[in-house]
Amino acid sequence: MERLLFAILFIAIAMGCTSKYNRGTYDLYLIPEGYEGTIRVIYNVKNAPLLEREGKYDVIPVKGNGKYETSTPMYDYGEVIDRYYYVDEKGNRTELDPMCVSVLGTGGTDNAQGETHHTLIEVTHSKCGKDFGLWGSRK
Q: What's the pLDDT score for residue 80?
């Protein structure tokens, strides 16, 4: 009986560790230079473009209003392994300090257009620090 329980536990752990939902959130945010505020990425939006890939990262080209819509069905789960860059008008990237980014959370909506999911982050270049990284401008 112990061997059976061990085998079941081992299989469950192995399946969980190899699940695509445990891989982490490899997102690469391309943010207009100087933008400060909330960024909302909305997934599963009909007729929106699929996310492109750059290596192992999904590329999210944030619009000037802080939003991006994609028809990619849903965001990934797991450890946040995202990268954040300001992008100037020539396409040059400047990586943001992690203390200038606050991960606010995820959510979803179900309405007449269908079910969508979203992620929210907040970025700053003027209030960077441990408190901002943890709380964003909510503190």
A: 75
Domain boundaries, the chain: 24-138
Residues in the chain: 139
Distance CA 8, CA 66 (A): 46
pTM as predicted: 0.79
Q: In what order do the strands lie in the sheet with 114-123?
A: 67-69, 37-43, 114-123, 101-111
- Compute how many other C-beta atoms are within 10 angstroms of the C-beta atom of residue 137: 13
Work out the burial of residue 28: count CB atoms within 10 Å of its CB; fewer than 13 is exposed, 13-18 middle, 19 or more buried. buried
Residue 138 φ then ψ, to 5°:
-70, -20
Please name which of 61, 129, 70, 74 lies closest in space to residue 101, comparing C-alpha atoms: 129
Give pLDDT < 70 ranges for the chain: 1-23, 77, 139
Which residues, in sequence order, are CB contacts of 116 under 8 Å at separation 6+? 42, 43, 44, 45, 108, 109, 110
